[in-house]
Design brief:
Structural class: alpha/beta
CATH class of the largest domain: Alpha Beta
CATH superfamily of the largest domain: HUPs
Radius of gyration: 26 Å
Helix content: 40-55%
Number of strands: 15
CATH topology of the largest domain: Rossmann fold
Bound molecules: tryptophan, iron/sulfur cluster
CATH architecture of the largest domain: 3-Layer(aba) Sandwich
Largest sheet: 7 strands, mixed
Length: about 550
């Protein structure tokens, strides 16, 4: 998870130069019931339309909306109503985006598994042990813990292989930071009795899965996604397949919805993981109307044609593909989808048109294929590489395909889901960066240092107190307000709203506001560090290899 710009590595990664424009500006929306939410557009900073998602480069997001359009990330607001008692980061729009989170929310709501069984939902995230954990990581720790408290099985992993490969850290350094990340995660409430902590380098199952996943991806694909070229070290690719295995690891116990909370820079990994999960499947379930495969747009056209024609036909004289082609030419405006589907319909000619759910054989063993045939109720037709069924809906077919796959030794992976949080603005303005101590607050900073850093932070205040009273402060542009919203106000929405309203209303002046924030930060760090100390014992009792057997 990165919320900093320290992914520059050693310069061997082709996009290290990255772009630097556009920091993660925030844009609060006052009013409404909850605290002001951060809007999806990243404010009006210069270069605000800049979007670069690079897991090892410098990721910048000027305009969060672009992520929705360009990469197909969903707006978190759309799933928010499905989440019971959402986390404050969700309520405040800090968690702004997701892929397929609805299935995780549903699984958590409906989970009826007992305490000793694997839960129906899981959460996993990973951390490169490259430095001290800071308040950006705290957000992710909290997200993991929140899901754990709501019944999900929780996984926290230390990406030590990646840190070694992509950042060249020695194993001694890695061990030191590993311990520190784990202490903070435990101090914040991660329950190791109801979850799993591991490091990539010693998790044999992850390594084995990584290797298997590597059989489904080739170099061209990785270079297209990550800008790899002939000079890229092989260990970068190993890091990629390892992360793919991390993401799917919670599903080795059983296939289940899994959410990966990350920064948007990790989205390329999510897209690949979702693809690989599908490529490992024994069967692919599709819906169609005839022997040929169609895409979503084409299917919609077929549905309309079928509905229009069906009433006038019966079993003795079914709707034929050629009839549907004629209907579409007459009733639907020309489009690529129409041309595509009409061509297929013409080629199928007299074949009857009939809705069906299809199982395509992707990687099934012969036994699994036979078993699936036997398990399908109702009318079915078996072909060389697929089975068409006529009395099954799609969800039932998906469930059956997965069941048969798992019974025959397959993984049955569900596509992993993700949620994305905003990058925090640095205390000195610009980006929060691990390499600029004044820009961030480390969870290990002395409470007084934390206090001082907040006191010296840039604000969204006006030049003079008079102007501030007259115009109000710019809370939306203020790193200190962000501290309140992301951390200091905790679950207290009223307090977050109060700070915002008082600021923009001109009643709050930056000096006092920072003093209050600084005190809260000091208290937070004090308490957190006490809890870290208490966690030492717990950590040493865990079954976790704190010292790597590797040497440099
Ligand atoms: N690549 C992540 C980072 O840059 C770390 C990571 C490794 C990770 N495996 C993961 C994150 C699995 C989420 C899920 O920090
Ligand atoms: Fe920021 Fe507080 Fe000043 Fe408003 S009053 S601009 S929130 S420091």
């Amino acid at each position: 998870m990165t919320d900093d710009d320290t992914h520059g590595g050693d310069g061997t990664h082709p996009t290290d130069a990255g772009t630097d424009a556009g920091d993660a500006r925030t844009d609060g929306v006052p009013g409404g019931e909850g605290p002001p939410a951060f809007r999806a557009d990243g404010g009006s900073a210069a270069g605000a339309d800049e979007v670069a998602l690079d897991p090892w480069g410098s990721s910048t997001v000027g305009d969060y909306r672009k992520l929705f359009e360009e990469f197909g990330i969903g707006a978190f607001d759309d799933v928010l109503p499905e989440v019971p008692a959402p986390h404050y980061l969700m309520r405040r729009g800090v968690i702004f985006g997701h892929r397929d989170y609805g299935r995780v929310a549903r699984a958590m709501r409906e989970d009826e598994t007992g305490p000793d069984e694997p839960a129906d939902a899981a959460v996993l995230s990973g951390f490169m042990p490259t430095g001290d954990p800071h308040i950006g990581h705290k957000m992710v720790f909290d997200e993991i813990i929140w899901h754990q408290e709501r019944g999900a099985d929780a996984f926290g992993l230390i990406a030590d292989l990646e840190a070694h490969a992509a950042r060249g850290l020695s194993w001694d350094e890695i061990d030191e930071h590993t311990r520190s990340y784990l202490l903070s995660l435990l101090a914040l409430g991660f329950d190791p009795g109801d979850g799993e902590l591991y490091r990539q380098s010693t998790n044999r199952e992850v390594q084995d899965l990584a290797f298997e996943l590597g059989t489904r991806a080739n170099f061209s694909e990785l270079s297209a996604i990550y800008d790899f070229d002939g000079e890229t070290e092989v260990s970068y690719m190993q890091s990629v397949v390892t992360q793919m295995a991390d993401i799917l690891y919670p599903q080795l116990e059983k296939p289940r919805p899994t959410v990966i909370p990350v920064g948007p820079d990790q989205d390329p990994h999510m897209r690949l993981a979702r693809d690989l999960a599908a490529r490992m499947r024994f069967f692919k379930v599709t819906e169609g109307y005839a022997s040929f495969e169609v895409d979503d747009a084409e299917r919609e056209l077929l549905a309309r044609a079928y509905e229009a024609l069906e009433a006038a036909h019966d079993e003795a004289s079914p709707v034929r593909c050629a009839d549907a082609a004629g209907w579409l030419r007459e009733h639907e405006p020309a489009s690529d989808a129409r041309e595509g589907v009409v061509e297929s319909l013409d080629a199928a000619g007299k074949e009857p048109l009939r809705p069906r759910v299809r199982f395509l054989d992707r990687n099934a063993t012969d036994e699994a294929f036979e078993a699936l045939i036997g398990a399908i109720d109702g009318e079915k037709r078996v072909f060389e590489g697929h089975i068409d069924t006529f009395d099954m809906d799609r969800d039932a077919a998906e469930a059956l395909a997965r069941e048969v796959e798992v019974e025959h030794g397959g993984y049955g992976f569900q596509p992993p889901s993700s949620v994305y949080h905003r990058f925090m603005t640095g205390l000195t303005g610009g980006k929060m960066s691990s390499s600029v101590p004044a820009s961030h607050i480390s969870l290990l900073d002395d409470p007084e240092t934390g206090y001082d850093k907040v006191k010296s932070a840039t604000t969204g205040g006006r030049e003079t107190a008079e102007k501030q009273r007259e115009l109000g402060g710019e809370a939306d542009e203020c790193p200190v307000y962000e501290l309140y919203a992301y951390l200091l106000a905790g679950d207290d929405d009223e307090f977050a709203t109060e700070v915002y309203e008082e600021c923009v209303g001109g009643e709050r002046l930056c000096g006092d506001c920072k003093e209050q924030a600084a005190r809260l930060m000091e208290a937070f760090l004090e308490e957190h560090q006490e809890k870290r100390e208490e966690a030492e014992e717990l950590l040493d009792e865990l079954d976790f290899e704190l010292e790597s057997p590797r040497t440099d």
